[in-house]
Specification:
Layout: H1 3-18, H2 26-41, H3 60-74, H4 101-125, H5 134-139, H6 221-227, H7 238-246, E1 276-281, H8 282-295, E2 308-310, E3 315-318, E4 321-324, H9 327-333, E5 340-342, E6 354-357, E7 360-363, H10 381-384, H11 388-391, E8 407-409, E9 412-416, H12 444-470, H13 495-522, H14 526-537, H15 545-559, H16 565-576, H17 596-599, H18 614-619, E10 629-632, E11 644-647, H19 655-663, H20 665-674, E12 676-678, H21 687-690, E13 692-693, E14 703-704, H22 706-716, H23 722-728, H24 748-760, E15 762-764, E16 794-796, H25 803-809, H26 821-836, H27 847-850, H28 852-860, H29 882-890, H30 895-898
Antiparallel strand pairs: 1-12, 2-5, 3-4, 6-7, 8-9, 10-11, 13-14, 15-16
Helix pairs in contact: 1-2, 1-4, 2-3, 4-14, 4-16, 7-22, 7-24, 8-12, 12-13, 12-29, 13-14, 13-28, 15-16
The structure holds protoporphyrin IX containing FE.
The site of protoporphyrin IX containing FE (HEM) has 23 residues, from helix 8 and helix 22.
């Protein structure tokens, strides 16, 4: 089997033979016996049916071997087991008194193995395309297993597309020529044989069975039984949920918080309380908003549909019955019954067709679909645009059209994006903002990243120009697919070609930062460090290029081209961990950029065209990450001093321009780099977001509660509620509100469980009602309305909990996880698909597209050779991180401050300690920083 399985097994047997020489205590002997048992039991089988998934839970012997007694105890909880294995936490998770390497090795390897099983199962059971290809996925096509199908008629460009003829019109459609040289504006032709895939305006996919979506519609008997007619768009009431469960509570010490609007003079004395994550900073919060603006949008040019709907603040549950709120209730809650919002945009709501395969009936798509108005690719479309209109918002430098336009600003070092001008295709609310492809929901954080990566784009162009001037006849690496044999010399690269290459480089740098810098800090432990680096560089690491290249070819061609569904998906995914996903198929012998079998040869969609699922958007509703006030610091003075507190809302839309220009990119980097972001937990939504004014709204108050809106949008999009959501993803269900919290319940958790009960209610259960077919109970029996409680007893309406509220309530998480395990499992699937499906991250990661400089830039995090970080952070020798290199290049004022930074998303002045510590202590030199008081 795959490399990690083999290494785990070999490692265990080596370990078993080696340990006879060591004195073993009783506990250790038990663990070793368990290891022997685990090896004898063999590897887990990938199940044939979705209700046989392993749910992240392993056999007792396996848990004992990998994590000792603690892991065995944990098996009784609903949460995944791997987080309890040896070495998966901080120093306390490292074994004491026993052979130092063995247990940690089997713990971390065991965790990686569990995660790989999860990914394989997710690929097998959670792909549901909404474009019309689902029937082929289930039934197959001309003897090819559905999961091995690679080309779909539904992914052809329609006649209305301006490139219809260019890709072959009504003949076989194959992208060629200029359409394949780089990332196209609308995202067509990323997959050369499926031109439409991932392009702007195509429908969001799903990760859950279609008839499980839209739970309020009760599409089948199971869903009706699950929710017993209790759900509606505004029931339970979203504003009541927001105010009862999500509001950030302010202590008496929170001076001048002013509902998150802070003090008008930005006084450093102002304070808004928020629950903080010690190991993740505000730059990380804005990073992920910056990413979502690249990946998806339900809105069209900042707008939804023209029809307006109520947003709640109308009812509360009294004995399970929605009952009108009294004026007194409204005042106490602080909600607004008059708020209204524009209804979500729907792409299709006609009744979906159904089909039958092997006696089972399936829906061909979800009952409603919604367009992703962004390109789904990781193509930096937030910077460069995603359609003709948004592209016009992006300003090029007329002196060198390969560059983006950046202008000097008085008083601040470096250059900045220009401001929108009259005639630019923008919405009124964006007027006065800095020019960008995706200008919506703009604050200082978006201004920061857009300026930074515009500088990075220009830094690449400038370096290319410098090298070209030194060596004008040198081979740029670039080729034209019309004439692939002809070398394009450095001096002959046109500005347009260079701009296209720079966009590829910037997109790949962003993808790399996200994969090996942001994510390992979001999920701050050893298995995830290894796992994420494996996605990018492979488990073999960058040190063995020949072995990686050979493995990569086997994966792309032997497995990728198989007609057998299991080989084309399961084995492909498993073996891809060896060489890494990034660059798969790019080393094929005889590579010819004019032939799709090379350029497209490394992609794998696992039988389902790529787009994000609605469920992915749900787990990115991360508004709690944002603090109300930014602790502003000045790099030219004392970085340890908080000079001011600037309200985030005072930088909303056009107000970000002055905030950026008057204070400068480097100072904002320092300020957001040092400050901790908000924890994803109950009671941590910034109050300014609950009271935000959106000028675009055609309502008298123009105000909206963004936390309530998050719930409404998920309900409009038909996202299953939390418990079924978990079952669909192969995670264990909860059986009561208490299950969200550590047992026995104490302190605030008693209160939170009661608040969940207040807003979602309880009911008398009926054991004759089966509520799901995604899983079976512990006795392999259907799961019923009583969730294991006695028939006729009062049970919590845990089935009704909105998914966002559910994952915010999850209080048991793997070590260092800033997100919950439910969110994480959605990422395991979709984050790797975002790489697997993209030709420019796999088989087209080549100098013919990126230039030679571009390939090196992405591999080495900038020009010249790779630089190595000092010391051994968490025991690893590693390159200087990609975002640190971007900052060093583009904001050199930060050089001193960055000396101490290993991961740009870890609060900059925190002492990182020895092994994945979450302690909040200052590094040497930062003792006077008041953030550590
Ligand atoms: C100050 C910062 C932010 C502001 C002002 C803001 C504002 C908004 C608004 C007004 C919407 C509602 C659009 C609608 O459905 O009508 C929205 C949606 C959303 N926001 Fe934020 N947001 C902020 C930060 C963030 C952050 C840090 C994240 C983290 C990923 C995030 C993720 C999302 C997502 C996923 C949606 C749904 C988008 C969609 O449906 O396609 N936002 N935001």
């Amino acid at each position: 089997m795959k490399s990690i399985c083999l290494s785990v097994l070999c490692g265990i047997s080596l370990f078993l033979s080696g340990c006879a020489n060591h004195a073993a205590d009783e506990e250790e002997v038990k663990e070793l016996e368990a290891c022997k048992q685990m090896v004898e039991d063999g590897l887990l089988k990938i199940p044939e049916m979705r209700d046989m998934r392993f749910l992240g839970k392993v056999a007792t012997a396996t848990a004992m071997c990998r994590g000792g007694q603690q892991a065995v105890q944990f098996a009784k909880t609903p949460w995944v087991d791997w987080s309890q294995y040896w070495g998966t936490g901080d120093m306390a998770s490292l074994p004491k008194n026993i052979v130092p390497k063995g247990p940690m090795f089997r713990g971390v390897s065991g965790a990686l193995l569990d995660l790989e099983y999860q990914r394989v199962e997710l690929i097998k059971f959670n792909l549901f395309d909404n474009n019309g290809t689902y029937k082929t996925y289930v039934a197959g096509n001309n003897g090819i297993d559905g999961r091995a199908v690679k080309v779909w008629p539904e992914m052809r460009l329609p006649k209305t597309n301006p490139n219809y003829q260019a890709v072959g019109g009504d003949q076989a459609q194959v992208c060629k020529g200029e359409l394949i040289r780089g990332r196209t504006t609308t995202g067509i032709c990323n997959d050369i044989l499926n031109p439409l895939m991932g392009s702007q305006g195509t429908p969001f996919a799903r990760n859950v069975e279609f008839d499980t979506s839209f739970p309020d519609q009760g599409l089948n008997e199971l869903t009706k039984n699950r929710h017993g007619n209790r759900l509606g768009l505004l029931t339970p009431d979203p504003q009541v949920i927001s105010r009862t469960l999500l509001t950030r509570i302010q202590s008496p010490a929170a001076k001048n918080c002013n509902s998150g609007f802070g003090s008008p003079d930005n006084s450093a004395d102002a304070n808004c309380d928020y629950q903080k994550a010690p190991f993740f900073n505000v730059l990380a919060a804005y990073w992920i908003q910056f990413m979502t603006h690249d990946w998806f949008s339900h809105l069209d040019e900042g707008h939804n549909a023209t029809v307006y709907i109520d947003t709640g603040c109308k009812t509360k549950l009294v004995n399970g019955v929605p009952t009108p709120l009294t004026p007194d209730d409204i005042q106490k809650l602080g909600c607004r019954p008059g708020d209204r919002i524009d209804r979500t945009l729907v792409a299709s709501e006609s009744t979906p067709e159904s089909f039958t395969v092997n006696g089972k009936k399936y829906l061909a798509r979800a009952p409603k679909t919604f367009a992703n108005n962004n390109t789904a690719w990781w193509d930096a479309s937030q910077l460069y645009g995603y359609d003709e209109n948004s592209k016009k918002r992006v300003k090029r430098d007329t002196n060198d059209p390969a560059m983006l336009l950046l202008q000097p600003v008085r008083g601040a070092p470096g250059a900045y994006l220009p401001v929108f001008q009259a005639g630019d295709p923008i919405q009124p609310q964006w007027s006065g903002q800095e020019a960008s492809g995706f200008p919506d929901n703009w604050t200082i954080g978006m201004s920061f990243y857009h300026n930074l990566f515009a500088r990075e784009h220009n830094a690449f162009v400038a370096e290319f120009r410098k090298e070209a001037a030194a060596n004008p006849n040198g081979d740029s690496g670039l080729r034209n697919p019309e004439n692939p044999g002809k070398v394009i010399a450095n001096k002959d690269v046109t500005p347009e070609e260079l701009f296209t290459a720079a966009r590829l480089v910037v997109s790949a740098m962003i993808a790399k930062i996200h994969t090996i810098e942001w994510t390992p800090q979001l999920l701050y432990d050893e298995p995830l460090y290894k796992g994420m680096n494996a996605n990018w560089n492979g488990l073999l690491g960058a040190g063995q290029p020949e072995v990686s290249a050979a493995l990569s070819n086997i994966v792309a061609h032997d497995f990728g081209e198989s007609k057998n569904g299991t080989k084309a998906t399961q084995w492909y995914s498993i073996f891809a961990s060896g060489p890494g996903i990034f660059g798969i198929g790019s080393q094929a012998p005889g590579y010819d950029m004019s032939k799709p079998q090379f350029t497209n040869g490394g992609v794998n969609h696992f039988g389902s065209p790529f787009n994000f699922p609605e469920e992915f958007v749900t787990v990115y509703r991360l508004h709690s990450l944002i603090p109300d006030l930014i602790e502003y610091r000045d790099v030219t003075k004392d970085p340890n001093q908080i000079a001011q507190k600037v309200a985030v809302i005072s930088t909303f839309e056009s107000k970000a321009t002055d905030a950026m220009r008057s204070r400068g990119l480097a100072n904002w980097a320092l300020s957001m780099g040092r400050q901790r972001l908000g924890l994803l937990t109950l009671h941590n939504i910034p109050q300014f977001m609950q009271n935000i004014t959106l000028p675009r709204l055609d309502t008298p108050g123009k105000q909206i509660d963004l936390a309530a809106l998050d719930l409404i949008r998920d309900r409009e999009h038909g996202v299953p509620r939390f418990n079924e959501f978990r079952r669909q993803y192969g995670l264990r269900q909860l059986t009561s509100f208490d299950d969200f919290f550590p047992k026995p319940l104490s302190g605030q958790y008693i209160q939170w469980a009661q608040q969940l009960r207040d807003v979602y209610g309880t009911h008398i259960c009926d054991a004759s009602k089966v509520i799901t077919d995604a899983q079976l109970d512990d006795n392999n029996k259907p799961i019923n309305d009583c969730l294991g409680h006695p028939n006729g007893s009062v049970v919590d309406n845990v089935e009704d909990v909105d998914t966002v509220v559910g994952w915010l309530s999850e209080s048991t998480r793997p070590h260092g996880f800033a997100i919950s395990e439910t969110q994480f499992v959605v990422f395991i699937l979709n984050a790797s698909r975002r790489l697997y499906s993209d030709r420019f991250f796999t088989s087209s990661f080549r100098p013919e597209f990126y230039t030679k400089l571009g390939v090196d830039w992405v591999n080495h995090n900038g020009p010249g050779p790779e630089r190595i970080e000092q010391g051994m952070p968490n025991g690893h020798k590693q390159p200087v991180s990609p975002l640190k290199r971007v900052l060093l290049r583009n904001t050199p004022e930060l050089t001193d401050e960055l000396k101490y930074v290993v991961n740009v998303f870890d609060p900059w002045a925190r002492a990182r300690g020895e092994y994945y510590t979450l302690d909040w202590k200052p590094r040497p030199g930062a003792e006077s920083d008041p953030a550590f008081k």
